[in-house]
Amino acid sequence: MHLSNYPLLSLILPNLCVATLYETIESLPKTTYDFVIVGGSHFTRLILLGADNITFQPVRAVASSPIASAKILRPRFSSSKPVLRTNVGVLGSIVPMLSQSLVSSPWDWNYTTTPMPGFGGRSVPYPRGHMLGGSTSTNAMAYTRGSFEDWDRYARLSGDPGWSWLEMLPYMFKNEKWTAPNDHHSTLGQYDPLVHSTTGMTSVSLPGFPHPFDPLVIATTKELPKAFPFNLDMNDGFPLGLGWPQQTINGARRSSGATSYLGPKFMARSNLHVLVNTRVTRVNQTGTDSRKPAFRSVEATQSETGPRTLISAKDEVILSAGAIGTPQILLLSGIGPEKDLSALGIKTILNNPAVGQNLTDHPLVSNLWYVNSNGTFDVLGQNATAFAADLEQWNKTQFGLMADSPLAFLVWSRVPHGSYFTPDTSAGPNTPHYELLFANGFLSNEDTLPANGSFMTLVSCVTAPSSRGELTLNTSSPFDQPNINPNMLATDFDNFVMASAINATRKLVTASAWKGYIIREFDDLAAVTDAASMKAYIQQKSTTIFHPVGTAVMTPKGASWGVVDPDGVVKGLSGLRIIDASILASSLFFLKLTPSHTALIMQPVIPSAHPQALIYSMAERVADLVKAAYKLL
Which positions carry the signal peptide feature in this UniProt record (predicted)? Predict the structure, then answer.
């Protein structure tokens, strides 16, 4: 599915929630709140605390941003009105099949990376959700918890056993609400109900619409069981193998932070104020606590030239703005590397070289095949009449192709032991080096959907990369995009794993079950015949799966390195806490550069998983830590 071929609709659905939102700073009550939360969704569990007043800054939007028209086949944007940055009426944030249509839309921050050598010097789009719910309202909805080794490594690196798999499992259950698939088919043999919860906040389900290749995939696990063993449930802590996908879908609609944690039940609370269409420009020092700078207010505005307003917290400001937004706000606030801040004329309040460093992400390549099928979703991008009919079916019945996500089965795998000569970057032998994702159609950001033909996509993704990048400020203006350099595929190991993953997709379709279904490889993949052409293919076709982490890393309490303690409190400061993907824990090791010089190296550890489920669960735990700290239990 090439994103530009799919429509983005707006303002055509009935209002899905009754919550009151403040659309202007002027309308917000003039008061000091207990907590001010900056971000899209992941820490909204805090609204259940029962504190006197809580304000939540769900987005840092600009009021002059354009609004989408209701044109069906091609997205067209008019700059005459501002976007109200909620999920209400935005089909790309509601209809599962349209989950990728918000990339490069007004509901996307529309970031772009710096040129990356591993991508052949290319810059690529770097989508982040720019609406209520943050990226949970715009992502591909994959729900993967990671391996037990991922979590146990976080516990070990942070010095806090509370981050271990067994300690975190109750928080995963608090987040998850297992929901029957939309078509209510028998799910026997497709998941393990013993490792799921039916009482949580975020709906999780299996696919609700059959794909023509479903029996072929299952047959492959029987014909090639060593390479592709069937895994009943990859969310049991042991993800290796091939299994059915689990996604944040409730019936025929996306389940996100905006529909769960900020759903009507909680948005109706009198002690919760939600301010949208507002950009937080920085956090402000409000004094000192025990000789530490205290940060208990934020500066906000609704336009680049508009007035700045301070919003204050009695207890804490909590940043939940993601691995891009959070370090940008910290740097703009004078929290970061003193040398870099001084160069931009920003006064340094806390010199912390770790802020913005070690940005880590999962690179991917979309590998495509022509297939003999008339049941793929390609028709939605090739035929306007078919698209309109499927959308109408979804709107009237909540069933059909639109009610399901573009993604199908997942494969988690490892490169053979001894096939590489660097330290293993995964968390352990039960943790994958790479992932394969099936899609029942053309799913690519780097290629254009042909006008005719049916396709299958097998996405290959490096899930335990060794490459590290950084985020730095471009200017001192909060309205200028920061320099985003994930530096993906910068190491030989990552390129080796990516090539291994691509070869695994080719091996998978050699199973006899695919005979008669697979026609041939798509042109660019077919041209890969040796190591040189594989390297060129990877450089030309790689992009990101949009999983940035590690720009404000968690380290043990008392450690002089890192950005936050295991409870999310920013080191060296008071009144400021972070809970989002930026804090995922970091390892520390010494690298001998010369006989007389040794460097101290810090690297964040990205989970071998889609991080959505992990961040939800982390937010659940930190919410409990906050409640305990302020005696709100």
Answer: 1-19
